[in-house]
Specification:
heterodimer; A: mainly beta; six-stranded mixed sheet; five-stranded antiparallel sheet; 11 strands; 0% helix; globular; B: mainly beta; seven-stranded mixed sheet; four-stranded antiparallel sheet
Chain lengths: 114, 114
């Protein structure tokens, strides 16, 4: 079985400040990890993914995440927040090789203050 | 490419009514999925189809049925809608490459059951 925990359902930062969204996962086999972003009334868009190889992955819009196996974490960061980053962010894990379905965290809503 | 498309965008049903949510993808993906999104719960898998001609239950299948009509289309049916099925429904598909597991999402259907 696999699961994802996102710490903090709401995070508020000032424009220009560091963004840190936390994600911890559990998986009995090596996981594939994803961060998706959802803007209001839209579908989910892939920000970045980790499958194998380099543990620091870079995504779109200046976001990056680091896979830390020892900590079972995949935290999302961005050095400087922009107003347009305000959205809901979902961490997801896939380690079920049969169905290939994703298990999602409950989401973190990021608010960016001017 | 249109990607993943869903119809309708919005729907209001009365308890006991039935309806079918349509999903189509033009990326030649093998696997397709239906999720529901509820506040504070992330996305939960309802049904999935690993390939044309196959379907299987996900985490929350009760009250739903699916049909994989062909490789492109995967529909979700509510036979007798209940207020607990008020949600946003997302269809997704995977590239299908071994180990990729990246999913592409449609824009969603917002369903209200009164």
């Amino acid at each position: 079985a696999q699961s994802v925990t996102q710490l903090g359902s709401h995070v508020s930062v000032s424009e220009g400040a560091l963004v840190l969204l936390r994600c911890n996962y559990s998986s009995s086999v090596p996981p594939y990890l994803f961060w998706y972003v959802q803007y209001p009334n839209q579908g989910l868009q892939l920000l970045l993914k980790y499958t194998t190889g380099a543990t620091l992955v870079k995504g779109i819009n200046g976001f990056e995440a680091e896979f830390k196996k020892s900590e079972t974490s995949f935290h999302l960061t961005k050095p400087s927040a922009h107003m347009s980053d305000a959205a809901e962010y979902f961490c997801a894990v896939s380690s079920d090789t049969g169905r290939r379905a994703l298990t999602f965290g409950s989401g973190t809503r990021l608010q960016v203050q001017p | 490419n249109a990607g993943v498309t869903q119809t309708p965008k919005f729907q209001v049903l009365k308890t006991g009514q039935s309806m079918t949510l349509q999903c189509a993808q033009d990326m030649n993906h093998n696997s397709m999925y239906w999720y529901r999104q509820d506040p504070g719960m992330g996305l939960r898998l309802i049904y999935y189809s690993a390939s044309e001609g196959t379907t299987d239950k996900g985490e929350v299948p009760n009250g739903y049925n699916v049909s994989r009509l062909n490789k492109r289309e995967f529909s979700l049916r509510l036979e007798s809608a209940a207020p607990s099925q008020t949600s946003v429904y997302f269809c997704a598909s995977t590239v299908g490459e071994r180990g990729s597991y990246e999913q592409y999402f449609g824009p969603g259907t917002r369903l209200t059951v009164t």
